[in-house]
Design a protein that fits this description.
The structure is a homodimer. Chain A is an alpha+beta fold and about 110 residues long. Chain A contains 3 helices and 4 strands, in the order αβαβαββ. Chain A has a 4-stranded mixed β-sheet with strand order 1-2-4-3, with helices on both faces. In chain A, a hairpin with a 5-residue loop joins strand 3 and strand 4. At the A-B interface, helix 3, strand 3 and strand 4 of A face helix 3, strand 3 and strand 4 of B.
């Protein structure tokens, strides 16, 4: 458990993560593009939970295929699920996705 | 175009693909479980487009973590996008996901 947490902290420092929610679609795309261009990131993680997973995939695809075409690519994709107790005291499972984008090797 | 079609046919023969849509959630989970158990498949691909991508991830997670826990795992995940002209004659892009599940190596 503690190893998992340490790993999470490590990842968060290493990489630039964009959490996808209900803000306008282009906000996230611009966020990813900026990380690579003005922030000089070599890897950006697009992360989402539940119904926002489809959006995270759209954001990754539009960034790779349109805005930074030929420059970045999908390096890795991980899916997982988190369990938590909701406010009706029921155990609920929600899926997550992490799409790792990185500079294309020349 | 014909190459694409041949590739599709090839894939369909090679692997057991479940296309996720709007049918009840458990239909798809049962479909995947049956492929592994009664059909003896070693790999099953869960595929979806657009808003159904989140569902495909849920189905993969529930199958791996609950119904066939310890027996199958996520082997690979691919995302892509398809472009097509909709009935208003506009070019539309839709994202796709393929989650490849396989028997866990002992």
């Amino acid at each position: 458990m503690s190893e998992g947490t340490e790993y999470e902290n490590e990842r968060r420092e290493d990489s630039n993560t964009i959490f996808v929610g209900s803000r306008p679609f282009m906000n996230y795309v611009t966020g990813v593009v900026m990380q690579f261009t003005t922030q000089g990131a070599t890897e950006v993680c697009v992360k989402a939970r539940g119904k926002f997973i489809s959006r995270a995939v759209d954001i990754a695809e539009v960034t790779c295929k349109r805005f930074l075409e030929g420059q970045i690519e999908v390096k890795n994709i991980r899916i997982n699920s988190e369990e938590f107790t909701n406010n009706e005291n029921r155990l609920v499972r929600v899926s997550t996705i992490e799409v790792f984008l990185g500079k294309k090797s020349q």
